[in-house]
Amino acid sequence: MLTIVALLSTLFASPAISCSDSSWITNSQLCLGSPQVWEARPSPGKGIGVYATRVIEPGDTILSEPAMIHITPPEFRDGVPYLLGDINTLLQSSFDALSPQQKAEVMSLHAHMSPTEDANDTLMAIMRSNAYTTGNSLGLFPKGARINHSCRPSTSQYWNPQLGRRIVYANRRIEEGEEISATYIPLLYSHKARQRRLDQYGFKCTCEACALEHGARQASDQRRQDLQKAFAAFEPQLTLSVPQSVAGKRKARKRAEASVQLVEQLEEEGLADYYVKAYHIAAIAHAKIEDWKPATLWANKGFETSLLADPNALSAGARELQALTNHLIIKWNAELRENATR
Ligand SMILES: [Zn+2]
Q1: How many A from CA of 205 to the centre of ligand 1?
Q2: Distance, CA 319 to ligand 1 centroid (Å)?
Q3: How many Å apart are CA 176 and CA 173, to the nearest integer?
Q4: For residue range 314-336, what is the model confidence (pLDDT) as tens digits?
Q5: Separation of CA 172 and ligand 1 centre (Å)
Q6: What is the pLDDT of residues 288-323, one digit of tens each?
Q7: How remote is the CA of residue 149 from the centroid of ligand 1, in Å?
Q8: Where in the chain is the domain with CATH 2.170.270.10?
Q9: CATH 3.30.300.30 fits 22-186, yes or no
Q10: 3-state DSSP call for residue 180?
């Protein structure tokens, strides 16, 4: 019983955000990023890079940045590639409204030009090379744009509509002096497929995952492709129904084991953007075999990890994990009571 009480007391405490400098904390409970935590300086072979000026702990905010250019393309639909030609006018008028200093900051960003483009297309190329989607809009964040790509990134990012800022936070410990990295592309692809996707940014990735020697890189490729298949296979299974047949129960036990492997492979690859999804899968897979303790702990881990990108648990995903954890605690508690009365 003590275990449950102790667990309950930690589950719904304040969000699992660690701000190593209390001056970062605002009313919104977010660490807004100390100007001392990073610096932009030359990165060998990559132009400019962003480096940690001190140790950054997981969950610490590195950047909290409003968009310098923020435009809503007409008829933009989330997840549908936008036509850059349609936004040219909006982009130019937004740029014209900037101060000379801001204009210089925008124009100093990397622009990957196609052979058919000329100097008149530079602003569009900068946008294409650096912009992020923010809900139904497109935002250009010049400071965050300095963070170079890695296929094993040390940061994750999200758009906070309440603050009107893009938040970049550490998804693992980052050492003082280490270059800070982000991903520009989805990462559950082989080295070759990732390089193809990065062609649009005009560089070949030489990150630690891409620089592995042949055998290790093949193993990494295999893991990433296996992970993509595993996510697809688990997706339709994300319900709490418990199988009743012997064969169904056997299959569910194998799935629970596979869900732990999924988490282990992700952690081995260092792909933090996929952790919440994997913890959710592991929670459901253990609930299906009525193994309530690991199911509860996985759900809670998923919930706590989701708070890194959603400190006030406002998203449907975070609320779902919170409700799932609550539900599983009740199941686990009932099991403990039952065992105690035997
Ligand atoms: Zn890479």
Answers
A1: 4
A2: 33
A3: 10
A4: 788 899 999 999 999 999 999 99
A5: 17
A6: 999 999 999 999 999 999 998 888 887 888 999 999
A7: 7
A8: 22-186
A9: no
A10: strand
